[in-house]
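RETRY 2/3 - previous attempt timed out on the joint model. Re-submitting the same 259-residue input unchanged.
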Amino acid sequence: MKEDLYSIKMRSARNTKHISGAERIILEKDMGLSVQQLVTRALGHSKGKSDFINIKIKNIVKQDIEYINPLDIRTVITNDYFEGRECALKALQKSGLSAETSHLVLNMLKDCHTMRGAILFEINSRERLEADKKRGVRVTNIDWSFNVKQELDKALARANLNNNHVKEAVALASKVCSAPGIIAELCWSDDPDYTAGYVASKDLGYMRITKLKPFGSNNGGRVFCFDSSKASIEKCIEYLQEKITLVNRVPVINNNIWV
Ligand code: WAQ
Ligand code: MG
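RETRY 2/3 succeeded.
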C-alpha cells in the first residue's frame, strides 16, 4: 500500500458539555470526505447542535498497526427495556461475571450521564479504575480496515444494520474484547433517539439488544469489565488508548432472535 494513512479524531461540545466524538483511520484520498462527514455529524446531533468542534489529524506509521478480527454480530429483539436488561444480565453472566457483579455493572450504566469515555470496572475488587471518573477511558485508534469497508457496508445493509452506531460500536467492542484483561463490555447509547445496546465478550461475540433504555433518555455509556488477575491495568489502558488497531474481516451476522 503506497498511500499514506491518517487518523482523524473529532470531538464536539455545546456549552462545554460533550455532544459527540468519533474517529476514523483512512486513506489520504478520503480525508476531505471524512472530515465533512464528522463535522456534519457534530452539527446535526440528536443531543443538540455543537458550538465547539475539535478535529485532529495525524499521520499513521504503518508498522505500528495491529490487525484484529471482528466479533460476530447477533441481534436479540426485546419488547421493552426491562426485558432487554434481563437479557443483558444473562449475557454478562455467560461472559464470566457473577450474578451480583452483573447487577452492579448494569446499575452503573443506569446512573451514567454523558461521559466522553467508558467506566473501567475491576470485577474482583469492584472498584472503578479510571484516573478521571468524569471523563472515563476513551478507546482511540480503531476503525475498519480500508480493505473491508465496502464489503462491510454491503453485509450490514443486507441485515438492515448499516448505520454509524452499529459500525463504530462493533469495531470498538472488537478492540475492547481483545484488550489484555478485559472480559466483557456493556453499552447503550446516551443519544436520546437510540435505544439499542449490546453485551460483548470473546465467547459471546457482539450481542445486540434492541431495547436497553427508554426512548428519549439521555442516560447511557459503556462499562469495560476488567479482571486484574489476568493482566496489568497499565497494559490494558495503554492498549485501549494508544494501540493502532484495524479490523480486518467482515463479521458473521446472524439472524435476529426473539427473546
Ligand atoms: N471509548 C470509550 N467510551 C466511549 C467511546 C470510546 N471511543 N465512544 C463513546 N463512549 C462512551 C461515552 O460515554 C458515550 O457517552 C457512550 O459510550 C455512548 O456513546 O448495535 O452509539 O456513541 O445497534 O452514543 C450501541 C448499539 C450504540 C449499536 C452505542 O454509543 C447497535 C452508541 P455512543
Ligand atoms: Mg452518544
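The longest strand covers residues 17-27. Closing ticket.
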